[in-house]
Design brief:
28% helix, binds zinc ion, eight-stranded mixed β-sheet, 17 strands, alpha/beta
């Protein structure tokens, strides 16, 4: 039996002084602060974050990232559960054999709990029920080129067909290829080549498919304000559609990106300040429910060059919480909202009712966090395999002091993470 007590325990509905008791990896009681135990004082005690959007890239592109480095970085950033994307690894997770290859690669290496998404690509619809049965949390697809040849996009008819094969969560990279152009080397051209209308129209396509098929759909990494009205309207109509956004869209702005700073390249692109303001408002309104990293690194050489050629993806699994909290604080938004968007909300999205919350019966995944301390990001000191991130040199607010996974502190040496399967309803 262990007890951690703090004057600021982030419970599902309130923040108050309390003592959290746990045993055998599970929370057994939430008691008065005066209970005997390890006293954290004014340090906040948060539920472990759930990051449902991480590209680990192992096996096959392990030099980009891998299970050991990604999960060590996650734990250092207060993330205790991550769900790995089906692409950038080779093989991509598009059938049961590939899922088994992923699990084999991950086994014994993980410092946090890890689940897996499957992929829906042209020609694999018949594999989806079996993959779902084998435990993936749902299926990712692209409506536009994914960046890697072994994970081609679906068109609307292909996504429609996939949605009809299995009752699952379909998560979609929503940009319409008809509205996206080739980019030239500089950032302003890159942003212009992937306009907000490309997101808005693709989101409308996904809404229409979800409406028609009754499938559950989720829009990944939403960056454009233009997509929000139709999303809100569809939700009001009862269409089963949700959306996430990412730390970079909430904290970085196109007008501040240097023309050749390819560490900022991601798709959809980081847009202007008015889009950022709208994303924060959409979180407040509940139109967007989750904030997850889309941690998508590669080697430094592939990330170099210019905006026409560099890999699109931002590495931030270790930095999401302080990045988002820094901006939230500046905007007068309380930490409890940030914690909700980054823990319970993504846990609910993927169906992990014992993750991302401090309550009796939940896993004792806990984060000791100093919301008022600051630090300056040094990319070379992050646990990410490749020291490239647009947050390098930024001073962020909020320091993770310690992360607990199922009742034990994560030490970054002994991997105690488990491989998770989708929980049957
Ligand atoms: Zn991604």
């Amino acid at each position: 039996m262990t007890v951690l007590r703090s004057r600021r325990v982030f419970l599902p509905d309130e923040v108050r002084p309390a003592a959290v008791e746990f045993h055998d990896g599970r929370i057994t009681a939430v008691l008065p602060y005066e209970t005997d135990g390890v006293d954290l004082g004014a340090l906040a005690l948060l539920p472990g974050l759930v990051d449902s959007h991480v590209h680990v890239n192992e096996p096959g592109r392990t030099e980009w990232e891998g299970f050991a480095s990604a999960t060590r970085a996650a734990a250092s950033g207060g993330v205790t559960t991550l769900v790995d994307m089906p692409l950038n690894s080779i093989p991509p997770t598009v059938d049961v054999a590939a899922l088994e290859a992923k699990r084999k690669a991950a086994a014994g290496q993980c410092h946090v709990d890890v689940g897996f998404w499957g992929g829906a690509v042209p020609g694999n619809a018949s594999c989806l029920p079996g993959l779902h049965e084998a435990g993936v949390f749902g299926f990712k697809s692209f409506l536009i080129d994914s960046g890697v040849p072994e994970f081609p996009p679906l068109d609307a008819a292909g996504l429609d067909a996939a949605m009809r094969t299995v009752d699952a969560l379909f998560i979609v990279h929503a940009e319409d290829p008809a509205l996206v152009a080739e980019s030239s080397p500089l950032y302003p051209d890159f942003v212009a080549s992937r306009p907000p209308e490309a997101e808005a129209r693709a989101v409308e396509t996904v809404i229409e498919l979800a409406r028609r098929t009754g499938a559950r759909a989720h829009i990944l990494h939403l960056a454009a304000a233009d997509a929000l009205p139709s999303l809100a309207a569809a939700q009001r109509d009862g269409v089963r559609i949700t959306a996430e956004t990412c730390p970079h869209y909430l904290t970085l702005r196109a007008e501040d990106v240097p023309s050749l700073a390819t560490e900022y390249k991601c798709c959809p692109p980081i847009r202007g300040g008015q889009h950022q303001d709208a994303l924060w408002q959409a979180l407040a309104d509940g139109v967007i429910t989750c904030v997850v990293s889309d941690h998508s690194p590669c080697t430094a050489d592939l990330k170099a060059g210019d905006f026409a050629t560099a890999w699109g993806g931002i590495a931030s699994v270790q930095l999401g919480l302080p990045a988002v909290w820094t901006e939230a604080h500046r905007r007068g938004i309380p930490l409890e909202d940030v914690v909700h968007w980054m823990s319970k909300a993504p846990a609910d999205l993927v169906g992990l009712p014992h993750k991302g919350r401090i309550e009796v019966g939940a896993d004792a995944d806990l984060v000791v966090f100093a919301p008022d301390e600051t630090f300056t990001v040094d990319a070379s000191r992050l646990h990410h395999r490749n020291p490239v991130t647009p947050y390098h040199g930024r001073t962020l607010q909020g320091v993770v002091h310690q992360t607990w996974l199922r009742g034990e502190p994560v030490d970054g040496v002994t991997p105690t993470g488990r491989l998770l399967r989708r929980e049957a309803k």
